[in-house]
Structure formats: C-alpha cells, structure tokens
Design goal:
mainly alpha; two-stranded antiparallel sheet; 4% strand; single chain; flat
Length: 434
C-alpha cells in the first residue's frame, strides 16, 4: 500500500513491503501440496478407472471364458472315452458309463454351451462365428453318438453283427465321430489360444497401468516428502523427538515386541502419553509372563488385571480357570478311555484264544479224514504228499481209494477257505467214498 504525502508535510514515506510471513508460507506450501494431491488424484482416478474396466473385462469375460472352454473340452473329451466304451464293452442300459454319456450329451454339455452364450457376446466377431460353428459340430457329433446309442441300446444288441458293424462305422477314421471330434478340437484350441492371448495382452496392459500408478505415486510422494521436511523445520524439536519415541514404542507394541527401555516422559501432554504407554507396556509384559506360566501348567499363578475394564486381563483369568477345568476333565476322560481300551483288549484276547482253539480242533478233525500213510500204501506202495493249509484248516484235501484192481487218487479244491472250506472238504470226502 502506498500512502500519499499529507498537505503541509515535507517528509516522504517509503511504501510498506509485503510481509512473507509464516502463515503465507504455510498457506503457499499447503496450496502447492493441494495442487500436487489434486493432480495425483486426477491421474490416479483416470488410471484406476481404466484399470478397473480392464480388470472387469479380465475377471468377467476372459478368465471365465478360458475356464468354460477348459470345462467344455474336458466334457467333450469324456464323451469320446465313454462312446469308445459304449462300442467296445458289451453292456446293458443300466451301465453307469452309458448313463454318464447320456447325461453329458443330453444335459451337461448343452448346459455348458448355454452358460457360455453371455460370455461369447463379449468376444470378437470371428470368435463368435467360431463358437457358432463349434455348436453345430457338437450337435452333429451328438447325432452320431445318438445313432450308436440307438444301434446298441441293450446287452443283446451287441450280438447283432449288422448293428455292431453299422455302429463301429461311425467311429472309423474319416467317419462322423473322428471328423467332428477333430473339428471340435481345432475350434476349441483356436478359441482357447485367442482367449489366452487376449488375457496375456490385458495382463500386460494391467502391468503398464500399475507401473504408471507407481510412477505417479513416486513423483508426488517425493514432493510430499520435500514439503514434509520444510514443515518439519517449523515444528519444535522438543515435540518431534518425543512423538518419534512414542511412535517407535507403539510400533514395537503393535508387533508384540516388549520395550527394552521405558519412553522418556516430559512435563507436558506428550509426557502424559509417554506415562500411559509405559504403563501399557508394563501391563502387557505382566500379561505375557502370566500367559506363559499358565501355558506351562501353573494354574495357581497370580495375576491382577490393569483395571476393572481390562477385558483382556479378565479374559485371560477366565481362560486360566477354563484350562484348569478342561485339564482335569481330560485327565478323567483319558483314565476312563484307558480302562475301556484295556477291557476291550482283554475281551479281544479271550475271543482270539477261543477262536484259535476252535480252529486247532477243526484242524484235528480234518486231519482225521485225510488218508494216512498206511491208507495210501493200500493203494500205492510208494506215495509222497505235500499238504500245507494256510489257516490250519483248508478247503483243499487229497484222496486215495481202490476198488478191486482200480486205483484212484485225487487232489480236490472245495469252494471257500478256512473253516467253511474244511466243512465242505468233509462233505466232499464222504461223497467220494460213496
């Protein structure tokens, strides 16, 4: 502001200079900071919108398309295996493999194709035409399948050579099934490759957008860091240092690391905060020590909560009481289970002994029906028999007999093994003697 000379005055006054005070400096600094943040906001918003659209295209079109094509490819590949089974294995209409093929042809694959229609609408025109052609090839392939199903509907139809010949014709090289199967494979590979290339290109574009965001954030962060240093010189060192100590202490406490030294308390509000942090650290140390003792089984350890509102302290006390009660209950259950196991062991051992005695007795009974060396000598002068049952008794036995000048011997294998087989061997021996 310039003041004019008053009438009658001979002195001249110099114009006052503009005062670049702290308020102005802070205002300009925060103004620049606001502009930088605004520019960052605009750049970031535009980049994020572009990234969001690309991400929606990837998550909503490309990735589901690739997954749907893979599922469709697996289903069609499964039909090829099942139709070969239909042709090569004689079976009835209740064969699970035939049921699976019918479910794939009539329900699952048409449902997969219908589910892909909304995704196909987002594809390129060429890929949409490829998908339409794929649908027609699938229909033609299923018509060939239906002919095979019609010719071989049941178990008896496989005995008809004309039906078998006509059904196998569809699976010959150059016929309907291999022809449409190869066409479907080519179209599926082409569509999968196109979607994979599109996904790769979109991923590369996402990486480019991410690098752009990093560049924006890095440049603006550097400017904010410079502004922070400028403002830090204005802040009193006596405030910065205690706040830094409090920050360090809180970071350690946040990670669960105990403080090596207490935070120095000053005679101000920050000092009161330091005292509160020191009390918190001491309380956490006591809580940790108490928890370790409880974990070691010292349920009689003393602990005093920080206050009546100390929810953590009261919860730990309740945990101690619950752990003590649970440990006593578990000890009782272990003792009870141990007694039950020992009782079951004794019962099993008793049953095993009875079973073993029964098998041994059955072995003696079976040996009584087997020809002795003297019995064999009446039939043949020199004989040798190797007989070793796996379970003491067996459904296998040998037999020697003579009627006049006719001499007979045999080795017989009865159905079953063990005791049931041994009973059958006794019956068989009786019938052979008769």
């Amino acid at each position: 502001m310039i003041r004019t000379q008053e009438p009658g005055s001979t002195a001249k006054r110099k114009p006052e200079k503009f005062q670049w005070g702290i308020g102005w400096r802070i205002s300009v600094g925060f103004g620049i900071f606001g502009l930088a943040v605004g520019a960052l906001f605009l750049l970031t918003r535009n980049t994020l919108e572009e990234s969001q659209k690309l991400s929606q295209h990837i998550d909503g079109v490309l990735t589901p398309s690739i997954q749907s094509l893979e599922e469709l490819d697996r289903s069609i590949g499964e039909t090829r295996i099942l139709i070969r089974h239909w042709l090569s294995v004689q079976s009835g209409p209740r064969d699970p493999e035939k049921g699976n093929l019918g479910d794939l042809v009539d329900s699952k694959i048409p449902r997969q194709l219908s589910a892909m229609r909304p995704l196909v609408g987002e594809w390129d025109k060429d890929l949409q035409l490829q998908f339409d052609s794929l649908g027609r090839d699938v229909e033609y392939l299923f018509l060939a399948y239906s002919e095979v199903m019609r010719l071989l509907p049941d178990f008896r139809s496989y005995d008809d050579p004309m039906a078998m010949m006509e059904a196998e014709y569809y699976a010959l090289d150059g016929s309907s099934i291999p022809l449409y199967t190869g066409s479907i494979r080519e179209r599926m590979d082409a569509m999968s490759l196109a979607q994979t290339d599109a996904l790769t290109a979109s991923t590369a574009q996402m990486d480019e957008l991410s690098n752009r965001l990093k560049l924006y954030a890095g440049n603006v962060a550097l400017g904010i860091l410079i502004l922070g240093f400028m403002i830090a010189w204005v802040v009193t060192r006596s405030i910065v240092r205690p706040i830094g100590e409090l920050k360090r202490a809180l970071l350690y406490l946040g990670r669960g690391v105990p403080l090596a030294n207490e935070v120095e308390a000053t005679a101000d509000e920050i000092g009161e905060m330091a005292l509160a942090v020191n009390r918190l650290a001491a309380g956490l140390n006591r809580t940790r020590a108490f928890s370790m003792r409880v974990g070691q089984g010292e349920f009689d350890a003393d602990y005093e909560p920080l206050s009546d509102e100390d929810a953590l302290g009261h919860a730990i006390l309740k945990m101690r009481d619950d752990l003590e009660s649970n440990e006593q209950e578990l000890e009782g259950k272990v003792q009870m289970r141990t007694a039950e196991v020992e009782e079951q062991k004794r019962r099993v051992e008793s049953l095993y002994v009875d079973l073993k005695d029964s098998i041994n007795y059955a072995e003696r009974i079976q040996k009584a029906i087997l020809p002795s060396r003297q019995d064999r000598a009446k039939v043949f002068e020199e004989t040798a028999v190797f007989y070793r049952p796996r379970d003491g008794v067996s459904g296998d036995f040998y037999w020697f007999h003579s009627v006049g000048r006719v001499r007979m011997f045999s080795a017989i294998d009865c159905t079953g093994h063990g005791v049931p087989g041994a009973f059958l061997s006794i019956i068989a021996r009786s019938h052979l003697d008769k």
